[in-house]
Automatic annotation (TrEMBL):
Phylogenetic placement of the source organism: Eukaryota, Fungi, Dikarya, Ascomycota, Pezizomycotina
Protein name per UniProt: GTP 3',8-cyclase
One function term, GO molecular function aspect: GTP 3',8'-cyclase activity
Limits of the Radical SAM core domain: 78-306
InterPro entries on file: Aldolase_TIM (IPR013785), Elp3/MiaA/NifB-like_rSAM (IPR006638), MoaA (IPR013483), MoaA-like (IPR040064), MoaA_NifB_PqqE_Fe-S-bd_CS (IPR000385), MoaA_twitch (IPR010505), MoCo_biosynth_MoaA/MoaC (IPR050105), rSAM (IPR007197)
Originating organism: Oleoguttula mirabilis
Enzyme Commission (EC) number: 4.1.99.22
Amino acid sequence: MPTKLGPRSLPRALRRARCPTTTPTPTRRSIATAAAVEHTVPEPYPPDAVLPPVPSAKADRKRAVRDTKPFSDFLTDTFHRQHDYLRISVTERCNLRCLYCMPEEGIQLSPNKDVLTTAEIYYLSALFVNQGVNKIRLTGGEPTVRKDIVPLMQQIGSLRRNGLKELALTTNGISLHRKLDQMVEAGLTGVNISLDTLDPFQFQLLTRRQGFEAVMKSINRVQEMNKLGAGVKLKINCVAMRGLNDHQILPFVEMTRDQDVEVRFIEYMPFGGNKWSQNKMLPYAEMLDMIREKYPTVARMRDAKNDTSKTWHVPGFKGRVGFITSMTHNFCGSCNRLRITSDGNLKVCLHGNTEVSLRDLLRQDQGGEPMDEAAFEAIRQVELDRRKHSSDLRLDGEEGWLTKERQLLDVIGAAVKRKEEKHAGMGELENMTNRPMILIGG
């Protein structure tokens, strides 16, 4: 396995402003370049318009360099979609009980031994990055409740040397503010915070827990760090539900007046146990009409390639609003995302119910037992010893666990090739069997 690299360093002003609970790390790295910002256009566009990204000389050069190296066939499906974005759920546990995510009766947690270890997550991350993945997002459950989340992010952050450009986190924000400094040092470039209301009382109704002030503290902390040079892309995710929080749409838009944040309204989607109904689902066009009534000058922005969100901007406002329209205007044609669940299953589509276990294949030579760093090293050494007496070629240009890599990539490639052109429609999804959202990771 590749050796671990130290965390990245923060700007001097940011280090001085760190939370007092943060423990400094001795090694330093330069800050990773944040993703390019979106470009605005003055004229409005219809809600279903598909707009190309604004070209630039720098972007053209990057594209030319990228295109000189063929993208991995293992991560390319039969519709020529190249999957360079991997979402990894690191836990099934959560400290909230959101209505659209957690079934009312709760969930049956997997035994600890069935959940991927840090060594396994890092190994799979490295494997995918070596095949062309340049963005990894850690999800849950709630990823910050995983005890070793910071060391895990430090290990994944070291993959910048292999081509990883973005390391992001989706969180409910309850405890983010306590770990954010260390996460930024580890390489965090983006954070999506789930928040479905700006009303503290309603927050408790929607999440079945308290914690609104903690979430706002995390949002404020990200913004404070960005003012000092952290460069963390901040988005707030709001699942819009008719009759529950639709009255919060305009307050969220108003939030973008003075704050450099993107609020994204997500169409309510059906998952196991969340009691979805079409009557509760608030469509994109209706939300946009609500916003236009108060902010008639709101205009469509140009979206970057593979964006899941349709982004809009009120002239004069610092922030932006976006819409994730999985139910009414799917974006399957440009899908570049793969998902690994916390128990090690690969899902090639959020709304698909087909999964394949990478965990079982990883542990095949370990009698099904979880793999730690020592176990990986032992099996790798066996592989290296075997190769000394054979003519096997190296897979990725450096010594590695060739046989297992090939097996995993064959399974991954076959799953990607089976990916459908688009997910099922609204009526079909309602009747399909799928995991609860908390067990998928979104």
